[in-house]
Every structure is written in structure tokens, then in C-alpha cells.
Amino acid sequence: MIQITADGKLVYDSRLDEYALMVLTTTTALNKGGTAVFTMPPGHPAYMDLIEYKTIVEVFRDSGLVFRGRVLYLEDSASNERTVTCEGELCFFHDAIHRPYLYQMAPGEIFQAVLEVYNQQVAEAQKQFKLGQVTVTDPNAYIRLESENAESTLDVLNKLLERCGGYFVFSTDEDGGRVISWMRELTGYSKQEITLENMLNFSRAGINTSIATAVLPYGAKDEETGQRLTVSSVNEGQDFIVDEEARQLRGFICRTVVWDDVTLPENLLLKAKQWLAENKMIVTSISLTAMDLSVMDKSVDSFRVGDSIPVRIPAYGLDDRFRLTEKTEDWLNPSGSQITLGKEVQSLTGADVAGDNAASSELQQVAESIKKDYEIGISNAVTESRTELESLINQTSEEITLEVSRIESQQEELRQAQTKLEQDASSITISVKEIQENGVSRVETENGYTFDARGMKISKSGEEMENLLDNTGMYVTRSEEEILTANNQGVRALNLTARQYLIVGKHARFEDYTEGRTACFWI
């Protein structure tokens, strides 16, 4: 059962025809607002009830909330069909402004402070959020976050994500209030596997934009001198660090990174090493899209955004768990629903160097073996080829002579067949002329076809089936029992089999699946 409400009023119920929609899709994603789009026909009960940026829209599946947001804009077609586009509740944070700020505290404390500022500005209770769990931390126990300009609350939250990572998770408490949590890791998982059978697309690509083999780190400014902290005092006089393995592979590639909240050289050196360890790597992004089989079979475990999904596709070398990053659901056409999963893999070279070297060695051995065999056997091969060609030339000469004789014989047979066809054509022309002059009221063929005033009758002595086709319709009987009738009254059949799917009326479709399952859809 699928339901939509707008400020608590019913907009859609999959069981009620008067609330039918023409389109209904939702898209949800990690750390993104997501969207919902639905199209109402003219005369829909909720046609005039929606207001841009104000009406709160909720989509439920079997009483479980799958999308919450607000109407973003309305679009009417020439036939007065109204398409409603909604944005997810994370986008509510666009509505409040965070004036110039400076925070130097734990990530969770900053998150709480930002949320309080937002709730103070936004008066509507349906757009406010309570503070939930916060599991994101920082090794220094605090971070520095600042801006000299006013920013939207969403921009500040995105800075926290970029700085500390993690995921924003929305939920509902016992009082019905909305809660936002900031989680370092997500624990949800699904038992439904992604295999080659339900995978739709797969891609693997490198995504590095600023790889480095060395880093020049700077910390906070000294209030007296105005100079920034460096690692020289704890790094043998050097103000930069180098990863020798990466440098030997790619050369010297140095980047500058500033940490305004680091005041001790030991901590700055630790930060720089951690940064270089990540940024020296080639990052390979693996993504794939797949179908969610639970929309067609409720016994299959469903997918939720953020879930860890088992992916086993040996053809692509995949046997691991992937994070579900985006989910698009077409509620009126379940076969159009799909999920997107992503995973990033880091390696120094972007591939298994040992494996590449082994493969290169094997190829070199094969090449040398081929070259040696060629040099040893070339003389014998040429001699054998010359002898074989001479033999083929002699054989070909004899075969050409035989082929010419065979073609001449076929030509004579064709001339005789042409003469017979001309004679038969003359005979057929005479017969047709006699039929036209004298008229025919009944024609009966040797294979059981009868043409007369009743129509065309197909039957054969000793067979139980009989067919009759006339201007009123088609009638099929078996031993005089009616099997199939098709006329101006419709189609009537004794037994009927649909090999793939059957549509009944305007809104019902029964479909069979090869896995031994049958489903009924409302269309």
C-alpha cells in the first residue's frame, strides 16, 4: 500500500481510484535532500491544496515513511495535468542564515550550536528538528570552523560533513517530532544480494583530482609574529614531508595544506602524515545500478539508503559489500525502480603491481617462445607450404573442369523446368477463365479447406478440431464442443493461457516471472 499526504491531508492511496495519480516517483540519497514527483489529473481532490515552499509532503509504503519534504514548484500541462515536484527535508536548512561565525570546539558541539541557531529562526514546527545521536569525532577533540560571511545553515552543515565526514540521518521520535543525527558509520544492511541477474549497469573509474607525493603543512598563526606553525622543529629542520615510495613512483608532487585549529607541531606532523597517506593513493570509484526485487516480491529483504549491500558478480571481480548511496522508486511502475551503490578503493598504483609484473613476465615468456619456435621452424614451414600449394593447384584444375560440366548440366535442367512452368501456367489460366465464366458456389481442397456460403471451414476426417471463419466472427470447436468464439459480443474461451502477462480492465496486470513467482500490479 502506497499513500501520500500533504499537511496531513490525503493526496494518494493505491486502494482508492478517486485519488489516482498518473506519475509517482521518489529519489532519496545519502546526505542529499532527494526529490518526489507526482502528477495529478484534472479534478483530483487535492488539485488546489498545494502551496510552493510551504506544504509538507510525506510518502508512505505500508505505513513506513519513505520520503518527507515540501512542495518546490507546480507545473500544469495543456491538458491541465498538474505535476508536483518536492524537495527533501534536508533542504529546509536553506531557509535559515548563519551569520559570520568562529567555532573552536568538538564537532558534535558545533553541530548542536548550528541546529539551535536554525530552530530559533524557523518558526514552523514542521520544519524544526531535534538533536539526535552524534558519533562523529576528531582526533584533536575539537576543530576550528569559521566564516567571515553569512551562510545558509545547509552550507555550514556541508562544511562539517566535508571536514569530519559521516552521514546525516533523519528519524521520528515517540512524540512525532523529527530528529536529525550525525553518524560516523551506518549499521543498516540488507540480505538481498546484487548479482548479474538484477544488476543494470556497472562502472569503474579513477577519481583523483589532486594527488600528492609530498605535503607542506601549516598550522595556526602565531598571534605575536603572524607566522604560521610548521613542522620544522619536529621534522629534522624540514618544513615539508615526503612519501619516498610514492615519490619514486610518480616524482615530486607537493601540495600545501592549512590547519587553522592545530597549535602544536607534533599534532601538525601527525595531521600531515595522515593527509599524505590518503592523498598519495589512486582512488578508484566503483558504482553500479540494480533493481530492488522486493518491490515485486515482499518476501525479499528490501533496500534502504545507507544500507550495506552484498554484491557478488564474479564476472567483474566483485565479492564485497557496497553502500547504497541512492534509491529511485517508480511506485506506479515498479520495474522502473533502481538503486545506486558506490565504493571507493585506494591503492598506490591503481592496480595490483605484483599481479601486473607477473602478467608482464608471463607475456614476455610467451613472446620469446613464439619467436624461438618461429626461427627454428620457418624453413620447414616454407618447404611444406610450397609442396601443399603445388598439390592444391593440380587438384583445383581438375575440380574446375568437373564444376563446368556440372553447371552445364544444371542449365539444361533449368531450361526444361522453365518449359514445364510455361505449360502449367497456360493450363491454370484456362481453368481460371472457365471458373469466371461458369461461376463456383463451393470449393473443397484435398487438405480439408471448404469455401461455401457459410464461410471458410477447416476440418479433416478423423480429427476432433474444427474451425469456421465467416463475416460474423471465428468459431473453434472440439468434437462439437465450443472451445473459442470471437465475434461482435467479445471473446469467449474454454481455457486461456497468457505466457507473460495479462491486463484486465484499465488498472490490473497479472504477470508471471521465471523464478516461479506471480505478481499483480495496479497500473
Please provide a written account of the structure.
The chain has 523 residues and is of the alpha+beta class. The chain has 5 domains: 2-91; 96-183, Phage tail protein beta-alpha-beta fold, CATH 3.55.50; 199-207 and 283-353, no CATH class; 214-280, no CATH class; 448-522. It has helices at residues 107-121, 153-164, 244-250, 265-279, 353-438, and strands spanning 2-6, 9-13, 23-29, 35-40, 56-61, 64-76, 82-88, 97-98, 101-105, 130-134, 143-147, 151-152, 167-172, 178-183, 199-206, 214-218, 241-242, 254-258, 282-290, 308-313, 318-330, 338-347, 443-444, 449-452, 455-458, 465-470, 473-478, 481-487, 490-493, 501-504, 508-513, 517-522. The strands form 7 sheets. Strands 1, 2, 3, 4, 5, 6, 7, 15, 19, 20, 21 and 22 form a 12-stranded antiparallel beta sheet that branches. A 7-stranded antiparallel beta sheet has the order 23-24-25-26-27-28-29, with no helix packed on it. Strands 10-14-13 form a 3-stranded mixed beta sheet, with helices on one face. It is flat. The protein starts with a strand and ends with a strand.
Fold blueprint:
Layout: E1 2-6, E2 9-13, E3 23-29, E4 35-40, E5 56-61, E6 64-76, E7 82-88, E8 97-98, E9 101-105, H1 107-121, E10 130-134, E11 143-147, E12 151-152, H2 153-164, E13 167-172, E14 178-183, E15 199-206, E16 214-218, E17 241-242, H3 244-250, E18 254-258, H4 265-279, E19 282-290, E20 308-313, E21 318-330, E22 338-347, H5 353-438, E23 443-444, E24 449-452, E25 455-458, E26 465-470, E27 473-478, E28 481-487, E29 490-493, E30 501-504, E31 508-513, E32 517-522
Parallel strand pairs: 10-14, 16-18
Antiparallel strand pairs: 1-2, 1-5, 3-4, 3-21, 4-7, 5-6, 6-7, 8-12, 9-11, 13-14, 15-19, 16-17, 19-22, 20-21, 21-22, 23-24, 24-25, 25-26, 26-27, 27-28, 28-29, 30-31, 31-32
